[in-house]
Amino acid sequence: MTERQSLFDYTLALGDDALVLGHRLSEWSGQAPSLEEDIALSNLGLDLIGQARLFYAYAVELEGKGRTEDDLAYFRDAAGFRNLLIVELEVGDFAQTMARQLLYAAFLHPYYERLIQSKNARLAEIAAKAVKEMAYHVRHSAEWMIRLGDGTSESKRRSEDALDYLWGFTGEMFEMSAGENELMAAGIVPDRAAIMPKWTATLDHVWREATLSQPKARAMQSGGRMGRHSELLDHMLAEMQVLARQHPGATW
Amino acid sequence: MTETATPLWEVFIRSRSGLPHKHCGSVHAADATLALQAARDVYTRRGESVSLWVVPSAEIVASDPDDKGELFEPTGTKIYRHPTFYIVPDDVGHM
Predict the structure, then answer these.
(1) Which of A42, A85, A198, B61 supports an S-S bond with A110, CB 3.0-4.6 Å?
(2) A150 close contact with B: CB closer than 8 A
(3) Contact A43/B37, CB-based, under 8 Å?
């Protein structure tokens, strides 16, 4: 595989992670438990959609076939998406939304910190912008997990259920594709495994404060990077893409 | 969420260094940390702020609207207190 192809695959995968999670967060719009949190969740979603656009804009440049960001977002089916499974899962209740945000942001923040050192200037630039956004995602979701875990018996139960459900999807965050390994050898992308200590430390701190127990180890789900998705992504894309597909090229 | 679980907090933002914090609105939140987060999320989305304060609304001591006659009306006739009799040099900037 050429380096350019690997770089395209990598950029597309990071863009897909950001877009899918960004869209999931947007599903709370108008429905969150309070006005404040409604706006907060939209903000988090928009951070991620902004990151997706930066990755997609670079991906279509690398590809050089005249596709646009919108082509990538709206005119690919689920099998063409390369996102991690954890980001496509349903939003669930508020505890599940915050638990997923914490598990993912606690990974992505230190990951972007390392991507800033990339020998690829474009990726380093995107990471430098996104790292500040992800620092806030960690803070926001961690503060909520602490209050939900250490809150009422119901909020604790919902938090534990959410973590139990989500934990099996965290392993995929640390998997490296063959192309990614080549890029790592060239100093372009970080080693995902090297993020584990920081991720674990962040989560351990939250579990302690939240009086939540460490989620139990289990078999890890995987396949998103190869386009093997759950039907949840089909449903999400149907809603996300319907307008663009019914009215191609529409502007407002 | 009930009013007692998430009391009201007043939000003050400073739009840039050197200017004072100004009241801009309020948020509901369970505690100070979440109030600060909510204030950030609701009131600083367009780059409005370089600093934020949140204060429990219950801690604000307010004047009684019925007292406005004695508190505020007497100043209406004392125009000599306005600084309009001075010329402020352009390069003074904010006063």
Answers:
(1) A198
(2) no
(3) no
ipTM of this predicted complex?
0.83
The ranges assigned to domains in chain B are 8-63
Distances (CA, A) of B66 to B57, B70, B75: 20, 9, 17
- What are the extents of the domains in chain A? 3-246
B8-63 — its CATH code? 3.10.20.520
Model confidence over B35-79: pLDDT tens digits? 999 999 999 999 888 999 999 999 999 999 999 999 998 888 888
- Which residue in A33, A36, A147 is closest to B41 by CB distance? A36
Residues of chain A neighbouring B33 (CB-CB closer than 8 A): 143
The residue with greater pLDDT, B87 or A46, is: A46
Neighboring chain B residues of A38 at a CB cutoff of 8 Å: none
- Using CB atoms within 10 A of its CB, is residue A188 exposed (0-12), middle (13-18) or buried (19+)? buried
Q: Which CATH architecture group holds A3-246?
A: Up-down Bundle (1.20)
Determine contact, residues A84/A169, Cβ cutoff 8 Å: yes
Q: Do A137 and A213 meet the contact criterion of CB atoms below 8 Å apart?
A: no
Say what percent of chain B tops pLDDT 90: 61
